[in-house]
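Late entry, evening session. Most of the bench is empty. Finally got around to the prediction I had been postponing all week. Sequence below, unchanged from the version circulated by S.P.
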Amino acid sequence: METDAGTIYSNDDIKEYVEDKYGFKVHSAFIGQVREKLGIHQHENYRESRSDNPRIMAFSEEKEAAIIDALKHFGFM
């Protein structure tokens, strides 16, 4: 994912930030769901589900808030 400043950060960077700051891990799918919910552009290799009814993973508001904080930290918002 690329920020407005042109710096590229990966989901691994976001995962590491969340784990260091909040002490828990987040799944890449959670990060993708939060980005989609916020309308943040997915990278070019992002693949849509081939299923007509894709599985959506549930996650807590705490994890969503941590991911949003990480996205802000890395300049996506």
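Two things to note before I forget:
The chain is about 45% helix and 0% strand.
The first helix runs from residue 11 to 22.
Will write this up properly tomorrow.
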